[in-house]
Amino acid sequence: MATFQQPLTPEERLKTRIELKDILTDRIETLDVPEIYYSDLANLLSIPLTADDRRLFDLLDELSEKEHSQGRGFLSVIVIGKLTKRPGVGFFEMAERCGENTSNREAFYQAARQDVLDCWKA
Q1: Burial letters 9-44, b for 16+ CB under 10 A, else e
Q2: What is the pLDDT, as a whole number, of residue 4?
Q3: How high does pLDDT run on average in the chain?
């Protein structure tokens, strides 16, 4: 369950989205297995966020929506939960809002992951 925190300022949102993109794209470009747990990702950010912080989820959604609209896939597909080793439910809900069919979540996850790897490793 997401914890309540004060909203980020527009400047904090922008800075954190840039940090998120840099962290995720660097992992894809340099690691064979780029996945990162929500908690580990939150710990890398300059703004204190936790793995269950709604603000983190919203920022990941915004980043993925923007990257997808620019043809670079859902970048947050590599952010996963420790138990499931998959993105959370919100990831699939965000993809559905972008017009994707996620009825077979595993197939969608695998395809979305491959799209992002193909884009950023090229």
Answers
A1: eeeebeebbebbbebbbebbeeeeebbbebeebbee
A2: 56
A3: 93
Six token digits for residue 21 = 């993109």
**Each residue's pLDDT expressed in tens, for the chain with a length of 122 residues:** 555 578 889 999 999 999 999 999 999 999 999 999 999 999 999 999 999 999 999 999 999 999 999 999 999 999 999 999 999 999 999 999 999 999 999 999 999 999 999 999 87
Give the integer Cα–Cα distance in Å for 67 and 62. 9
| Contact of 63 with 20, CB cutoff 8 Å | yes
Angle of helix 54-69 versus helix 10-30 axis, rounded to 10: 70
Residue 36, SS3?
A: strand
Q: Tell me the domain boundaries of the chain.
A: 10-121
